[in-house]
Each structure stands twice: as structure tokens, then as C-alpha cells.
Amino acid sequence: MDRPSGAGLPEREGQPGMSVPVVCFVGKSGSGKTTVLEKVVAELVSRGYRVGAVKHDAHGGETDQPGKDTWRLRQAGACRVALSSPQGFVLFGTLDQELALETLVSRYLQDVDIVMAEGFKRSALPKIEVCRSERSRELLCRPEELLAVVSDFPLEVPCPQFTLEDTAGLARLLEERFLHRPSVVVRVDGREIPLKPFLQRLIAGTVRGLLAGLKGGEGRRIELDLGGPE
Question: Phi/psi at 115 (nearest 5 deg)?
Fold first, then answer.
């Protein structure tokens, strides 16, 4: 197995097949989308969410360094090479063609609450466009395709518009649209146990999946009482 499974997790509304919400930040080169994305990630993390990020490299540059041990193992034919250290890990893979963003998220980013992607303007996933007047006053995407616009000048668009500095407002939009937490409450001997959003989704998806094939198991509200040992 080279990927965590998303089995048992509920699909996201408006994102069929996706158990983790994904939002793409798009914009012309030099528009400042990386800076905006960086601030939004930090804001969501400060609110207690686990955030994943994906950067699209349209030029297909080499991410590994020729001559390094990981590069040599890939040259030897390994299709996956992981570099692990006490501070983190990196996974290198060899592909015949680029993975779709949806596939990348479903395979490798199932343990986060939301994924922020930079680029992927051709994706059908929700998009937020960053537009700066000194770079261009024309949008890259059609306005009706956008979840929101971030710019330093007013635009007539049928979606919410934020200034480049309104990171909190943009994070609030993402919270309201994608981060409604499942109503899963776990109490042990009467004491409520705090649950992260991912764990709530996992419990909800697992229980509903187990009950789906049972007569009467399709209800909206489910109560589960686990008794202690006799």
C-alpha cells in the first residue's frame, strides 16, 4: 500500500468523490497568489485545522537532486522513494503522466481537514482567483467559475470579493463553505472527548458505512452506546 485510504469517509458536497475539500488558488504570474495562500493557510492553522497544500509545477522541473541517495534509488527503478527524518518526510514518485489533483489528494492527503492548492486552473474544483492591478486587471477565469476573488481594486463579479489583506474574511468563507464539522460527540463515562475534524469525519463515515447495509440503518441521527466489560 502506498497511500492512505479514503474508504468510509463521506463525500464533500459539491465535490463528488472527495472526502477532503480542495480549493485552488489561481492567478496570473506575479499576482501574489502564493503570498495570499500562505496567509490563509496560517490563519486556518491558527483556528485549529489541519491544512494540506499542493503546488502545481507547470514546467515539470526535477524535485530531487541528481547524485543524492534518493535520486540514485529512483534511477535504479524504485517507483516510490521516501526520505524520512525526525523533522518530517518527503515522498518521491515516478509517473508515466501527471496525477490529477483529485487523485493526488485521495491517495496522499486524507488526514487533513482541507487542501489548499496553488494553480490547477483547468481543474473543475472550486477556485479563488488572486488579481493585482499592477499585474493585470483582467481575470484569468470566468467569474461564474470562481468561489471568490482577491484583488486590490473593485471588480463586478457574482461572487464574494476580498482585499489582499482580508485573510480572516477569506478563511471565514472557507470555514462556512467547507469546514462544517460533523456532529459527532463522544463521551466516556459522561465526559466529552474533544475530536479533531478529521477524526469526526472518520468516525461518522465508518459508522454510517457499517450501518448502510442494515435494515433501518439509513437514519440521519445515530446514537451508539458501548457498554463496559461485564
Answer: -115, 130
CA dist 40 and 36 (Å) reads 6
**Which one-letter amino acid corresponds to residue 41?**
V
List of the chain residues with pLDDT < 70? 1-18, 58-63, 180-183, 217-220, 228-230
Q: How far apart are CA 17 and CA 10, in angstroms?
A: 9
CATH number given to 22-178: 3.40.50.300
What is the grid cell recorded at 106?
Answer: 485521495
Cell numbers of 215, please?
435494515
CA end-to-end distance (rounded Å), the chain: 38
pLDDT at 149: 95
DSSP 64: S
The pTM (predicted TM-score) of the whole model is 0.69
Q: Which amino acid is at 126?
A: P
Extents of the domains making up the chain: 22-178, 183-230
For β-strands 161-162 and 146-151, DSSP reports them as: parallel
pLDDT of residue 110: 84
Task: Answer for the pair 146, 128: CB distance below 8 angstroms, yes or no.
Answer: yes
- Nearest CA-CA partner of 160 in 143, 137, 179, 135: 143
What is the enclosing helix (H) or strand (E) of 13?
Answer: none
